[in-house]
Specification:
The complex is a heterodimer of chains A (79) and B (242). Chain A is an all-alpha fold and 79 residues long. Chain A has a single domain, classed as ACP-like (Non-ribosomal Peptide Synthetase Peptidyl Carrier Protein, Chain A, Orthogonal Bundle). Helix content of chain A is 49%, strand content 0%. Chain A is globular, with a radius of gyration of 11 Å. Chain B is of the alpha/beta class. Chain B has a single domain, classed as Rossmann fold, CATH 3.40.50. Chain B has 8 helices and 7 strands, in the order βαββαβαβααβαααβ. The termini of chain B are far apart. The chains are: A mainly alpha (79), B alpha/beta (242).
């Protein structure tokens, strides 16, 4: 698991790209249902995460990712 | 309204005419070139020089670095015109893999590369204009130009798909489809090809590059905000009905 600073950085990307209030960026939040993010938002979000964390995320790794928690775990697994 | 405009293949022909017109409208304009940078216009009306960046669109790294240069000098690209294109004619029966690929790589894949690189900034800005220069031969076909025609038809499918993908962000993607235009590329056609094409143009003449640029600038304008996925023919009527 990542530390607080990592999650803060992750949260900042979500707030900036998805244009949602900070308190909505919680592990159980669903991109489609709670954050109103469409497929383009998700691509932009992934690109922002790739840049912020200097990681590379393959398209296939995004299958089945629907919540903030799942996306965060994916990022942490690459650090 | 001064926008940042990037024209790929803007050192001559249709691309250069587009660049000059955007400049005349007050935009900050960059062009990419492969063979040689654009010559400064002669005479007293010489405008500010275009920002000319060397870039072979068949090289993804070169496309990326060209955009980086433009972003550093002028800011994020708000209008992209994909005009970089080549021909390398020959009959299919005798066309080498290399000749086929070179044209498709430049004309079609080069368009994809430039558009892909331009998109993140446009999506972030929630506005943007992409105009792709295709050709009437993309839907008419032309003996001896199967590679070019395939690439030009491919650009239309690409542009329309992209138009759908980014429409929700108010980014528009349109195609201008010129017919016969007085450029170096037309001069490269043999006499038979030129004569055969010219005889079929209802308006009975070849276009000036500036006539194509006018359509491009319109599609890139704020006024054209409700037009996306369109193919605007500027071909003297050559492709009518297609």
């Amino acid at each position: 698991m990542g530390d607080d600073a990592t999650f803060e950085k992750f949260k900042k990307c979500a707030v900036d790209v998805l244009q949602v209030p900070e308190d909505k960026v919680v592990p159980e939040a669903s991109f489609s249902n709670d954050l109103n993010a469409d497929s383009l938002d998700l691509v932009e979000f992934v690109m922002a995460l790739e840049e912020a964390f200097s990681i590379t995320v393959d398209e296939t790794e995004l299958d089945g990712i629907d919540t903030i928690g799942q996306a965060y775990d994916l990022v942490v697994s690459k650090l | 309204m001064s926008r940042v405009v990037l024209v790929t293949g803007g050192s001559r022909g249709i691309g250069l005419a587009c660049a000059r017109r955007f400049q005349a409208e007050g935009d900050r304009v960059a062009v990419t070139y492969r063979t040689a940078p654009p010559k400064d216009p002669a005479g007293a009306e010489a405008t500010t020089p275009l920002l000319a960046v060397a870039c072979d669109v068949t090289d993804p790294a070169a496309v990326d670095s060209a955009f980086a240069t433009v972003e550093a000098e002028l800011g994020p690209v708000e209008v992209l015109v994909c005009a970089a294109g080549i021909t390398d004619d020959g009959l299919v029966l005798r066309m080498s893999e290399e000749r086929w690929s070179r044209v498709v790589e430049t004309d079609l894949t080069g368009t994809f590369r430039a558009a892909r690189r331009a998109l993140p900034a446009m999506l972030r800005a929630r506005t943007g204009r992409i105009v792709v220069i295709s050709s009437v031969v993309g839907y008419l076909g032309n003996a001896g130009q199967a590679n070019y025609a395939a690439a030009k038809a491919g650009q239309i499918g690409f542009a329309r798909s992209l138009a759908r993908e980014v429409a929700s962000r108010s980014v528009t993607v349109n195609v201008v489809s010129p017919g016969m235009v007085a450029t170096d590329m037309l001069a490269a056609l043999n006499e038979d090809q030129t004569a055969a094409l010219a005889s079929r143009v209802p308006l009975g003449r070849v276009a000036e590059p500036e006539e194509v640029a006018a359509a491009v600038c319109f599609l890139a304008s704020a006024e054209a905000g409700y037009i996306t996925g369109a193919v605007l023919a500027v071909d003297g009527g050559l492709g009518m009905g297609h």
